[in-house]
Amino acid sequence: MLEASPPDRRTRSRDGGRGTGAPVSPTRPNRRLSSRVGRRRDARGRPVAERRRRRLHRQRTQHRRAARAANKETLQPGLSEIARVCAVLDVSGSVRASASVLFRRALAEHLLYGRAYESIAGATVYLGARQVDVVRTLTEVANASRCPNTTVVRDVRFLQRELKIAVGPLSAAVYLPRLRSALGLDERAVRSARRLLEAAIAENLHSGRDPKGVAAGALYTVSRLDERTVDLRQTEVATAADVSPETVRARFDEFASCCPEVLDDGNAASP
Fold first, then answer.
1. Same domain, yes or no, for 60 and 80?
2. Are residue 180 and residue 237 in the same domain, yes or no?
3. Are 102 and 112 in contact, with CB atoms under 8 Å apart?
4. What is the pLDDT of residues 52-95, one digit of tens each?
5. What CATH number does residue 237 fall under?
6. Where is composition skewed (Basic residues) in this entry (predicted)?
């Protein structure tokens, strides 16, 4: 006996207003559209005879084999790996949904041949996070996916090329909240860093530079030039931003020489 959940009356079809069940989800292997073969009771809760149980057992076996096609044998563990990586990274459900869609596309295009599904799952999580403007570095994703960083980077570029995924660079301002939390700064320092970034963009100092390094350099400059902000070391700022101390120092030299009036104006305006 096939058991199916009752339709969700809150979800209506466009034509007749009838209940059409729960919405589908790309994060589930069957998109929440699967059926389940019962065991000892039918859909009404009545006991099933012994002879019919054997037939249901055979039906369950065939149903399980049909559901596990060649590509779906990778789909199930791949989506589970995406869910695990997203849980480790503590990202929103939109990231998981975007990553699941990308993984399905890669599977449909037969792009997983010769590649581990763990690294492909990690690459889709990184690309899914970029699509919804969630900041997660490749190092963080690689550590969460338990794959080498070089492997995840390779698969990210591979998926971008084969699936024609256009992902623009993140702005430096997106990294400020994370760096503020990691460095223990207050909101005033972030506001000063935002003003500094706006002035740096106006001077085209961000062109061709890593947004993480630009954000780290802005916060480091604020900590050095603003007397009310705790003085930070280059190494701790570089570690928090996952860049080299030389990058932080180079951005500091540019910001300190070109944008000192920004911090002066901010200090004068503050009570």
1. no
2. yes
3. no
4. 778 877 877 776 666 555 456 788 899 999 999 999 999 989 99
5. 1.10.472.10
6. 29-43, 51-67
Q: Which domain holds residue 122?
A: 72-162
Query: Which residues are within 8 A (CB) of 4 and not within 5 positions of it... i.e. 6 or more apart?
Result: 35, 36, 43
Domain count, the chain: 3
Distances, alpha carbon 228 to alpha carbons 179, 264, 265, in Å: 18, 12, 14
Is residue 270 very low, low, confident or very high in pLDDT (cuts 50, 70, 90)?
very low
Look at the block and give the residue holding tokens 């890669």.
106
Those residues with Cβ within 8 angstroms of residue 164's Cβ, 6 or more apart along the chain or in another chain: none
Do 254 and 217 have their domain in common? yes
DSSP state of 43: T
**What backbone torsions phi and psi does residue 68 show, to the nearest 5 degrees?**
-105, 70
What values do phi and psi take at 263, rounded to 5?
-70, -35
CB atoms within 10 A of CB 20: 15
pTM, to two decimals: 0.64
Q: Which two tokens stand for residue 238?
A: 């570089």
Quote the tokens at residue 95.
Answer: 């990231």
Question: Is residue 167 included in any domain, yes or no?
Answer: no
